[in-house]
Amino acid sequence: MTQPYVPRRPPLAQELSIRGLRHHLTAWPGSDREPLVLLHGWMDTGDTFQFLVDELPARRRCVAPDLRGFGRSEWPADGYWFPDYLADLDVLLEHHSPEDPATLVGHSMGGNIAMLYAGIRPERVRRVVCIEGFGMRRASPADAPERYREWLRQLREPPEFAAFPSFEAFAHLLARRNPRLGPDRAAYVAQSWAARQPDGSVRVRSDPAHKRVYPVLYRREEAEACWSGITAPVLYVVAAASEFLPRIGEEASSARMAQLVPRLESCTIEDAGHMVHHERPERLAAEIEAFLERT
């Protein structure tokens, strides 16, 4: 049996009530006054930033929430509305960085949250590192009726996650789907993402409702209007083998984003797919640290 990855910087588990929901936070203390606020992607959890944090200087103070309904954070009773993540982040920053603007490091969905928030509340953000946070493809209003129909259909069929006989079986699947992950990190991620169930099986611990289609179409024009309000320097990180950038196309390219965001610079992580912080944390940390030092 493969032993899980062993953290070099011990994580601290914390809880914080945010807008009526209990949120799980993973914290890594450091001597820096300013925290790095790490925002995970869809179906990820805050504690899997461990690989990245271990590659950053020990002085870097980091905090990573499990976003509402993910990981060990509480599930809302009435479903999900994307702007709630912005409001949750607003409260989190008031708690962890009440006087100073914070540096946001977001991956995928977390990158989208960070970029929107930085454009809406620029006075609260010092820097942004957006890792594979491309937004989504531009949608056509003609798609709305079918999207609503699909959402209503899915409400009648409660989703669930697959059951695995063991954490090892789940880790094996993760490693097979992503060979860059490696068996020790796959075992660590499996224990972060999943929990033992009363029947003895192992299932992803996040709310299965996240699997439902989102009923409201993505409005890229609105996102771009928010991004154009960002005043902080932005590091836009793209994986050389990104599975998602080709689906969105040129409007998510570094060149296009640089036209929208005044202080954006970009970098590419070679030999990495979408889960950059899992696959190549040492290369990502080097790019982030250089960015932090020069900004």
CATH class of the domain at 12-138 and 218-294: Alpha Beta
Distance between the termini: 44 Å
The number of helical elements comes to 11
Tell me which CATH architecture of the domain at 12-138 and 218-294 applies here: 3-Layer(aba) Sandwich
Could you tell me the CATH topology label of the domain at 12-138 and 218-294: Rossmann fold
* Count of strand segments: 10
Strand content: 15-25%
What level of helicity do the residues show?
25-40%
Give the overall shape.
globular
- CATH superfamily descriptor of the domain at 12-138 and 218-294: Alpha/Beta hydrolase fold, catalytic domain
Mean pLDDT, rounded to whole units? 96
**Strand neighbour order, sheet with most strands:** 1-2-4-3-5-6-9-10
Major beta sheet summary = 8 strands, mixed
Secondary structure class reads: alpha/beta
Name the helix and strand elements from N-terminus to C-terminus, one letter apiece: EEEHEHEHEHHHEEHEHHEHH
Note poorly predicted spans: none
